[in-house]
Amino acid sequence: MSKSSVAIDELITVCSASGLRRTAALEACLRVLATAEQPMTLQQIASDPAFGVSCDPATIYRLITRLEERRIVRRIGFHSRAAHYCLREGSHQDYLICRDCGSVEVLDIACPVEHLEKQIAEESGFSDLEHELEFFGRCLACQK
Amino acid sequence: MSKSSVAIDELITVCSASGLRRTAALEACLRVLATAEQPMTLQQIASDPAFGVSCDPATIYRLITRLEERRIVRRIGFHSRAAHYCLREGSHQDYLICRDCGSVEVLDIACPVEHLEKQIAEESGFSDLEHELEFFGRCLACQK
DNA sequence: ATACATGCAAACATTTTGCTTTGGC
DNA sequence: GCCAAAGCAAAATGTTTGCATGTAT
């Protein structure tokens, strides 16, 4: 009955294959990210009920960094002070963010940038290209 | 012979009209931003040769914040720890950033998101919508 | 004269690193 | 047993605020 669309075990297998050890903190991070509805900060990850264990912020930081290097996790900027992270599962997502209250909504749209990306890759010579598309505005609630 | 496509005087007029005072720090910020080739951090702004005067980081912070509130300046996330800022002159720009060396390139493309933006505004009810589109990859130099 | 802007100093939040200990393989 | 990972502590970075002083209007 988990909300997660990805099996944690599968993720752990991928992590193991890439040289990471199966630790409680790793499982906890993956568990949280796999059920997350939206990108989360390190703090949010640590304090999520699904995290279960308690561990040092530095540990989570290094863990997420390793996951990011292995491209299992993706980093998102938004405009908040802290970086947000999400699983790089399947297709990439675009976001709609309220400038005032900071709420984040995942956009259910066909991303219009895919072909442009290829073109840019060719013209620039950049490799491993990917993009980040975010819409900022004021949500209905904050307009009042 | 300035690289700037915007007259500083014009900018100052806009600022005055919106209630800001004509101070040395304001002029310095606008001068730097008007000639900037790409979005800059507060530090970069302060240490730019065009800045001319010396002033406290807190001053620049508050100044840029006011300019941002008045939508004269636009904030860009990139993925660096520090926020980047640029003038909101004319049309919006998209960027190509190297994940490794952090170099920023302004993309000279027709942004493909304009009409999508309208659609999202209608569907979500968000107002003052705008977007940020960035491409991340590894530049030629960093691929070696 | 008044209110806004600045400088200085300090608090904050988050990220990042060093070093020792623990524990997965 | 070995090496990666965790814990703990501290530094580094960048943002943010409070308060007294200066200055544009």
Question: How do the strands and helices of this protein lay out in sequence?
Answer:
The structure is a homodimer of 144-residue chains.
Chain A: H1 8-17, H2 24-35, H3 42-47, H4 57-69, E1 73-76, E2 84-87, E3 94-98, E4 104-107, H5 114-124, E5 127-138, H6 140-143
Parallel strand pairs in A: 3-5
Antiparallel strand pairs in A: 1-2, 3-4
Chain A binds a DNA duplex (25 and 25 nucleotides) through helix 2 and helix 4.
Structure description:
The structure is a homodimer of 144-residue chains. With 144 residues, chain A is of the alpha+beta class. The model of chain A has no long low-confidence stretch (mean pLDDT 93). A 3-stranded mixed sheet of chain A has the order 4-3-5. The first copy, chain A, has helices at 8-17, 24-35, 42-47, 57-69, 114-124, 140-143; strands spanning 73-76, 84-87, 94-98, 104-107, 127-138. Chain A is globular and about 40 Å long. The A-B interface holds A 75, 77-79, 83, 96, 98-99, 105, 107, 109, 112-113, 116-117, 120-121, 124-140, 143 and B 75, 77-79, 83, 96, 98-99, 105, 107, 109, 112-113, 116-117, 120-121, 124-140, 143. Strand 5 of chain A pairs antiparallel with strand 5 of chain B. Chain A binds a DNA duplex (25 and 25 nucleotides) through helix 2 and helix 4.
H-E string of chain A: HHHHEEEEHEH
Number of domains of chain A: 2
**Order of neighbouring strands in the sheet with most strands of chain A:** 4-3-5
* Overall body shape of chain A: globular
Regions with little confidence, pLDDT below 50 for 5+ residues of chain A = none
**What oligomerization state is this entry in?**
homodimer
Radius of gyration of chain A, CA atoms, in whole angstroms: 17 Å
Instruction: Provide the CATH superfamily of the largest domain in chain A.
Output: Winged helix-like DNA-binding domain superfamily/Winged helix DNA-binding domain
How would a textbook summarize the main sheet of chain A? 3 strands, mixed
Tell how many strands the DSSP assignment of chain A holds. Answer: 5
Classified by CATH, the class of the largest domain in chain A is Mainly Alpha
At CATH level 2, the architecture of the largest domain in chain A is Orthogonal Bundle
Number of helices of chain A: 6
**What's the helical proportion of residues of chain A?**
25-40%
β-strand percent of chain A reads 15-25%
Structural class determined from secondary elements of chain A? alpha+beta
CATH topology of the largest domain in chain A: Arc Repressor Mutant, subunit A
